[in-house]
Write a structure and sequence with these properties.
Number of helices: 3
Radius of gyration: 17 Å
Oligomer: single chain
Number of strands: 0
Strand content: under 5%
């Protein structure tokens, strides 16, 4: 497999997130493309943190409204 060009990272991320690529193919893609894998894992972590922050803000807002 040829390395994924950096300008294609977002396209591949979209394919993965929209489940247009089988899980086995995602695994091999990440194994074969360490630069993309590192970038993608960083994006996954950023989305996770953003989701947790949104949950915390929502909980804090709900708690304030309930006082």
């Amino acid at each position: 497999m040829t390395a994924i060009p950096r300008e294609q990272f977002l396209n591949y991320e979209t394919l993965i997130l929209t489940e247009q690529m089988p899980a086995a193919r995602v695994r091999s893609l990440l194994d074969e493309n360490p630069d993309f894998a590192e970038w993608y894992r960083g994006r996954v972590e950023a989305r996770r943190r953003a989701s947790l922050d949104a949950e915390r803000r929502s909980s804090a807002s709900t708690t304030k409204d309930g006082d």
